[in-house]
Design goal:
- With 171 residues, this protein is mainly beta.
- It is built from 2 helices and 11 strands.
- The strands form 4 sheets. A 4-stranded antiparallel sheet has the order 1-2-3-4, with no helix packed on it. A 3-stranded antiparallel sheet has the order 9-10-11, with no helix packed on it. It has a two-stranded antiparallel sheet with strand order 5-8.
- Strand 1 and strand 2 form a beta hairpin.
- The longest helix is centred in the N-terminal third of the chain and has 7 residues.
- It is elongated.
- The two termini are 17 Å apart.
Length: 171
């Protein structure tokens, strides 16, 4: 038995309307679909299966309001880079130096999930079933709380097979 809900959000009409947003990249494999929001932290905005009864969302879909606000926290999923979870009090010591991440625009008391989820990602190679996203971070000491180390990140988001295809592939 499937553990999913036809319309997990309280405002399903708003969520379904958001699936057609032109800023999203639509991926499809069989009856499985994904919407990617590269401008909103390289997030997944929706992951669902198309059925005769309408979409069955496997993750909470972004709403129109979340897309308009460009709010990664209201997406279905977003990348946690260059670290996940939190850094207590937005401070840590590294190589004898105190690193202060406060003032980075994060509204939480602690530094949370890095900064990649609050940056626009560049779209690279794209097919009907996959997209490659890229982010390059160069530290900027003039920005309060900016992550002090350079890094490059790449996401490859791909749908492989689909439940309606022969052999019962997986998404």
């Amino acid at each position: 038995m499937r553990n999913a809900f036809p319309n997990p959000s309280s405002d399903s009409a708003s969520a379904d309307a958001a699936l057609d947003d032109p800023s999203l990249i639509a991926l499809r494999s069989g009856n499985t679909e994904l919407r990617v929001a590269p401008r909103i932290g390289g997030s997944i905005a929706a992951y669902f299966e198309t059925t005769d009864a309408g979409p069955v969302h496997w993750m909470r879909p972004a709403t129109r309001a979340a897309l308009d606000a460009r709010n990664p926290l209201q997406m279905a999923s977003f990348p946690l880079l260059p670290y996940c979870n939190r850094i207590r009090d937005a401070r840590f010591d590294f190589d004898g130096q105190s690193i202060d991440l406060s003032g980075d625009g994060n509204t939480f008391a602690h530094a949370l999930h890095g900064n990649a989820w609050r940056r626009a990602w560049r779209v690279g190679k794209q097919t009907a079933t996959s997209v490659e996203l890229h982010l390059e971070h160069t530290p900027d000491a003039s920005i309060p709380g900016d992550w002090p180390f350079a890094y490059q990140a790449r996401q490859i988001i791909e749908l492989i097979g689909a439940p309606d295809e022969a052999g019962g592939g997986k998404a």
